[in-house]
């Protein structure tokens, strides 16, 4: 399974921005195959091995910084949304409805992970359930990264509160991963 270079690059960029003092320790903790990816320029448009370029490095980052690999993945996802949704994209996210943002997140997912499939399974006034039905290497780290990305994208949109919960998971043997996203606005 493969991951797009722009997602890979955001892992190292997150460390360099938020924990620069730990970057070299993190890099040295990686096995040779993974370390080599980050010692060369990561090209945003290239495809990389999900295992070597994302799962192993994210696991190491999460353990090093948070003593929790999934928390590290969540923070990388938040950072990725923050850096991706700038300029005209930030304006677009603020102007769009939450449903539209989450629907787009489902479509964007397949441009970052191949082969994969994510769709909107259910929606209501203030919630959406996303369903990942195709992902050859199920991973709590990928699920965490997606959750963090959606959470930050919704915050950038301007909701007063957002919760993102992984209610079913391919990693637990479920037929699909389901991500429940709920949000609200303060009433004036």
Tell me the overall shape. Answer: globular
Report strand %: 15-25%
Lateral strand order in the biggest sheet: 4-5-7-6
Oligomeric nature of the chains = single chain
Structural class: alpha+beta
**What's the mean pLDDT score?**
93
Question: Termini separation (Å)?
Answer: 47 Å
Q: Indicate the percent of residues in helices.
A: 55-70%
Poorly predicted sequence stretches spanning 5 or more consecutive residues: none
Describe the structure.
By secondary structure, this protein is α+β, with helices and mostly antiparallel strands. 55% of the residues lie in helices and 22% in strands. It contains 8 helices and 7 strands; from the N terminus they run βαααβααααβββαββ. The chain has helices spanning 5-18, 23-29, 32-39, 50-66, 69-84, 87-95, 98-112, 140-157; strands at 2-4, 47-49, 113-114, 116-124, 127-135, 161-168, 177-184. It has a 4-stranded antiparallel beta sheet with strand order 4-5-7-6, with helices on one face. Strands 2-1-3 form a 3-stranded antiparallel beta sheet. The mean pLDDT is 93.
């Amino acid at each position: 399974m493969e991951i797009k270079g722009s997602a890979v690059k955001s892992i190292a960029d997150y460390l360099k921005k938020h924990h620069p003092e730990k970057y070299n320790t993190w890099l040295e903790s990686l096995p040779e195959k993974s370390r080599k990816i980050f010692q060369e320029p990561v090209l945003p448009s290239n495809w990389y091995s999900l295992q070597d370029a994302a799962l192993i490095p994210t696991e190491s980052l999460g353990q090093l910084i948070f003593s929790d690999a999934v928390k590290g993945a969540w923070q990388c996802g938040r950072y990725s949304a923050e850096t991706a949704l700038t300029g005209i994209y930030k304006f677009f996210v603020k102007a769009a409805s939450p449903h539209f943002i989450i629907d787009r997140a489902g479509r964007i997912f397949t441009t970052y992970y191949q082969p994969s499939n994510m769709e909107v399974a259910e929606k209501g006034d203030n919630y959406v359930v996303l369903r990942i039905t195709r992902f050859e290497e199920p991973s709590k780290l990928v699920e965490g990264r997606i959750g963090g990305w959606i959470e930050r994208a919704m915050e950038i949109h301007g909701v007063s509160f957002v919760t993102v919960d992984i209610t079913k998971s391919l990693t637990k043997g479920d037929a699909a991963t389901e991500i429940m996203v709920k949000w609200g606005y303060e009433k004036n």
